[in-house]
Amino acid sequence: MRILVLSDTHRHVALAQKAIEAQPTARHIFFLGDVLRDLEELKPLYPDRIFYAVSGNCDFASFEPSTDMERLADINIFFTHGHPYGVKYGIRHLLQAAADRNCKLALYGHTHVASIYYEDGVTCVNPGSCGASRSGANSYAVVDIEPNGIMPIIIPL
């Protein structure tokens, strides 16, 4: 199973759309916040996709939670924008939150810096930002969940 992970689009809807178009086999799309209004524009274009979303620190007055959990392909996935866990200063709290929930995959954004970590049985993926990267190219992530493991990839836009 392939999932697509987007974060921090900040009104760059066309770049998020480019990422979705580039991954036709990714039926599950995780949006990690900042700006949820972008996701509302994308959803009607892809009725065959399943979207999961959390609010970010720029999603004022949103009814979406800032963290959530989903189970796909027999693994628990913890996802958050990241600001409630102080991810700009490290991922220790994020790792603990994922472990407390028995999650093998943790998805987060907020830093605008793409990264992949594996620690204590948890794979952590930050897709970077679709429209406002702080570390080079704008990017997104795909995560393949297979019987032999979790395989994340960062893809530049």
List the helices and strands and how they pair.
Blueprint: E1 2-6, H1 13-22, E2 28-31, H2 36-42, E3 50-53, E4 67-72, E5 75-80, H3 92-100, E6 105-107, E7 115-119, E8 122-126, E9 139-146, E10 149-156
Parallel strand pairs: 1-2, 2-3, 5-6, 6-8
Antiparallel strand pairs: 1-9, 4-5, 7-8, 9-10
Report on the architecture of this protein.
The protein has 157 residues and is of the alpha/beta class. The protein is built from 3 helices and 10 strands; from the N terminus they run E-H-E-H-E-E-E-H-E-E-E-E-E. The protein has helices spanning 13-22, 36-42, 92-100; strands at 2-6, 28-31, 50-53, 67-72, 75-80, 105-107, 115-119, 122-126, 139-146, 149-156. It has a 5-stranded mixed beta sheet with strand order 3-2-1-9-10, with helices on one face. Strands 4-5-6-8-7 form a 5-stranded mixed beta sheet, with helices on one face. Strand 1, helix 1 (13-22) and strand 2 form a beta-alpha-beta unit. The radius of gyration is 14 Å and the shape is globular. The two termini are 22 Å apart.
Distinctive features:
single chain, 157 residues, alpha/beta, five-stranded mixed sheet, 3 helices, 10 strands, 17% helix, globular
